[in-house]
Queue: 4 jobs
Job 1
Amino acid sequence: MKITKEDIDALNSVVKIDITANDYQDKVDSQLNDYRKKANIPGFRKGHVPMSLVKKQYGKSVMIDEVNKLLQESLNKFLVEEKLDVLGNPLPKMKEDFSWDEDQFSFEFELGLAPEFEVNLKPKKAITAYKIVADDKMVNNQIDNIREQYGKLITQQEVEENSNITGTFTNEEKDIEKKSTFKLEKVKGKINLKKFLGSKVGDTLELKSKNLFTDDHMLMNVLGLSHDDAHAFEAPLTLKIEEISRTELAELNQELFDKLFGAGLIKSEEEFKNKLKEDAEKQFASQADQQLLNAVTESLIENTKFDLPAEFLKKWLAVSGEKPMTPEQAGEEYERSEKGLRYQLIEGKLMTDNNLQVTYDDLKEYTKGFVKAQMAQFGDSNIEDKQLEDIVNRVLSNQEEVKRLSDQLKNEKLLAFFKENIKLKTKEVTYEDFVKEVYK
């Protein structure tokens, strides 16, 4: 057998594999002997079928099977030994005059090669790393929500400005019949407010869905609509009032603090505010980190320049999926996936060059931390080593969990690397401003 490689250019090569009968005949003969021992052919005792008959019936199919096995093994071994970093999989080049009736064969495979490049970690424009702070407005709003959540409902005789209203919305034509609760303060417009104020349990109000609430998204909840349907919905509504109440806010006292955080952990209103601020900013930190990871990804793709074997990849995409694609479909798929492929190559190089790979030991320790945190949430912070080991082993026996945790750990390693090595500028913002800037 002879294997040669011809470089078309820096990103494309062709591997040629020549196979003669000497390369596969011994395995074919061995396979046919096995067939002969096991074959059940009328007129012959088992194990005494003439080899000529076995060859006539099975010879060609066995030969084709053995050649294909040899071909795949030899190609894979060649790629490993030559340390060829290929994209996708080798693509066989079809020959019009190919025939299995010969005893020696020549096969060719197209290869798309990964490009050589350097990762640009110092873009001209620094990447913004957001530090999201919980301002007084946010903390006070959260306190108001908590006081309301733990407050007491006081029944009212009629709707007042501070009322909560429970009732059933109906519209027969639109098949609407939904019981909902909402605050009067969310109702929009003087005309609508006038209809509500003074109403009592059992009263029926005729309303219009358009401009009924200060936020159109409330129609999703009160009418049970999807986001798109809520925006398009415009119809008269009938509301039958079933309950009216107001919320007496919970007091900011030790009883509430203990209920929220445990006995004696928070002892004053100032500590309560600081705790809410601290918890909010911890949650914001993970969101800011994800945004930073996204921004760095975009920057690396934009500033790290290299070519790809585009035509090869389009041909590979056309045949690699469950359903074959037309050249046009493969071209469209390539356009959609090109940025992702570029980042995979950049990420792989960064991880290799900077020893950021996720090892099994890394993953096991990370999983231990994950399990401990989960157990602590349920009040069990003193888990025994044997129990922890058993849980970790069960988690890592699930391939989906292994992939999820590996991806998380990989991203954490990359994020730490980026914070140390990428040109960043820190910007302190409120969560409201963060949303405006990032998701505008």
Job 2
Amino acid sequence: MQPKLSIITVVYNDAAHIIETMDSVIHQTYSHIEYILIDGASSDGTTKRIESKILSLASITHRRESGDSLYLEARLDSNPNFSFKFLSERDGGIYDAMNKGIELATGEWCNFMNCGDRFFSPQSVSELFSAYEAHLALGGEAIAVLYGDTQIIYDAQHSKILHAAPNGRKNAHKYHHHFIHQSAFINTAVMKCYKYDTRFKIAGDTDFFTKVYNDGFRFWHSAVVVSAFNVEGVSGSLSWRMFREDLQIGMRYHRLFPLYHILRYVFWIIPRVLVRSAIPARFRNQARVLLGKKQH
């Protein structure tokens, strides 16, 4: 029997993209899914769009409203093994919202497919777990984090496949996870034990993955392309907060990490951002496809 999966979408004021993300989950050929949507009390119609979408496809089994909070559960009419949980209320930021999703999760594995992103194909989840079942059948050990590759979308005409760090690469995730968060499925028991540190505003996922990796949990990579990660409109500008949060994480595991981190910014990240910014916008994404790295 297929393990039950909890797929979590966090959203705030993104009515333009929420249905595309929901459809990519609903149309997966993998049938045993608990779809959890966490909305931060959006004011742009996102909440109504989610509720209307669920009502058009599923039967409500539980509903609770209290003040500005709405919670409902529903079961897909066409598949009794596909269920919805929808919570809309104010939160303390993205990692607080993600932790709310973890608290509601009852599947064996959790995935975070946040609004604006989607699964690469309707077969992505089935292909990933078929590959994992084959790994176990050959005597492979149980894993805490399954991850695959990712399609990076720059705009409607430009995209590429970003290959994650393969199995067996020494210290692959010791200081930073070398895969896209949306392409990972995490053992729910591990997820509930650690959760995300809400003191981080950008690098909470990096903190989580490096923490569990350094605590001895096993990671496993499959060449399946799991998600499509949309960076359209993202400039790639430098972020002092990202620099500081990554530094804070790496310092826990190696005292010389600050030196490596500073040199990496000075000789790689800053020059790359400056060169990218100097390229005319009409050529920038083409250059990112042709010249950008192909492995995370």
Job 3
Amino acid sequence: MNFDYKPLANYSLEDRNTLGFEVVAEWVLPITQAEQIPAAIRWAKNAGLSHRVLGGGSNVVLPDQLQGVTLLMDIDFIEILENRDSNTRLRVGAGVNWHDFVGWTLDQNYRGLENLALIPGTVGAAPIQNIGAYGVEVKEYIDAVEAYDCQTNQWVSLSKADCQFSYRHSVFKDERNRFVITAVIFNLPKVWQPRLSYADLTNHFANRSVDAITAPEIFEAVCAIRTQKLPDPKVIGNVGSFFQNPVISNQQLQILKEHFPQMVSYPESATHSKLAAGWLIDQCGFKGMQLGNVGVHDKQALVLTHRGGGNAGELLGLAEQIQKRVKETFGVELVVEPILFT
């Protein structure tokens, strides 16, 4: 199938990044069908231009000027592949809003994704970051990822193993711009039990019998908790968590707790633990700090904010200050979570 492309020049992406930075893309190509992608990639290559994919812009930091071709991912569909007694398999377009999709699954009585409610962004972005919240990671429910391989110019279906998922990471981060994700296939088992290991959820349901708690109730609880802690990007520009929670050895944790007994941590494996990055940043005095047009949220130190008039340089400058202070204080490296576009 051939498509008559009319790429758009000098296109504003202010509405396609939740930080709300004023960004101008050299060229954009809206993608509403997977079949458009090969022609779009050829157009970019023939013009000698770089390319990248942008979904909801909820986990990216964009520069003032974005050179090359930006593919705006707007593929929007939900398809039920199988609905058995044991499991349900769904095929979902990469441009579908993630939170809307989670809500749709619960409306259909498909359970499992409720802990991941209210995470901004699109379905296609979810595997790139291996999004996670409240003790659940999306990799647990991904069966495969459909994509166009810009290196081999072929359509591919990557299995869960092919995706090389780890904490906030995947092959899609290692090989940036190689794959254009078009759809994600989810496998949701029918056997279900509440996931309430994180303190906020444990406290929320403290007076309830676990057997009586439903998936929609967890969905509503997660929405309420996130709303209390995190600013609405439509009101205050942000990308949610700006840093990953550091994973350190239990030996290092023991040493740190001798000096900082109140340090917040969670078991990650038999040998490693995860630290709460927000707690580390808070202890270094950054919570609520405003630096020009950017700052640190006053309710959650893990969230960096933009209130207008700022740019990526300002935000990354603040991030570097935080990383340096945390390293000096705790000997721990903070890794930036959003993708930095160039």
Job 4
Amino acid sequence: MTDVLVASGLRKRFGDVQALADVSFSVRRGEFFGFLGPNGAGKTTTINLLTGLARPDTGTIRVGGLDCTRNPKAAQHLLGVVSDESNLYPELSGFDNLTFCGALYGMGKTERRHRAGELLEIFGLAEAGHRLFGGYSKGMKRKLTIAAGLLHKPEILFLDEPTTGIDVASARQIRRILADLHRDGTTLFLTTHYIEEAERLCDRIAFLVKGRIIRIDSVEHLLTPLQKRHRLRVCCGGLSGKIVDILPPAFPDLTFSCPTEDMLLVEADQPVAIGPLVRLLEEHGAQVLEAVRLRPSLEDVFVEITGIEADALHREKEKSGAKGGAS
């Protein structure tokens, strides 16, 4: 599989802030590539450099075999861009927004009108196509913004936080459409801090923290080390510090932690026998409500590699959702 995008040694500084520091990676043709990191990691800056909206201080960019370092616009005809905030016009209808974008891409009138109608159907917006974009819900606005990025059938589609701050149903539909585009051979470049979204959609993922890539690999390879660990979540009432203290001597091959006062996490190199553990907890006054074996997730990998706790990312999601609700 050939590389359709190659970035090498990208650096970008805004005043005293080093947004990107020696970022290098490549994206294969037809790949769903994820850029995963917290807010402020440099994800949007990277997209702006790759799509010609900004220039790197140093480094090179090649897209579709074209050198975009000196001429950032050289490959724009190959690109579709969906920014984290819509750039469509509230005073135009959904249909007119799409046909206007088609005109900017140089599409003929008949072609752009046909393509606009096609995309409105695909995104479930056909009935709303005649309505003003300013009256759309957040989810509808997001879907039309993605449709606008697809209007000219780009070879590479860049998506910056496409499902942040929208309703569950719209997010699910967008993920399904992106998966369909991937199956049809479109190259997709996704930035997100929704870890479960990246795990579900992407072939390979780059972890970006404070402007640096600290790991790039396939989802399968990223999860492999954790699959050798066995994890168990036990929810129970009456779980005291005294009970927790007796567990390590009784089960020396297990590792215990208590993220909350009514939850016990158990880890081991071998499968955990639930029965003896539950019996000991109940003998010492705990009421076991649930014991569940946990499947390793990309969130676990992210926390282990970056040291950034999942709770911090969850708070960022909530902030993004609140920001989206206020806009």
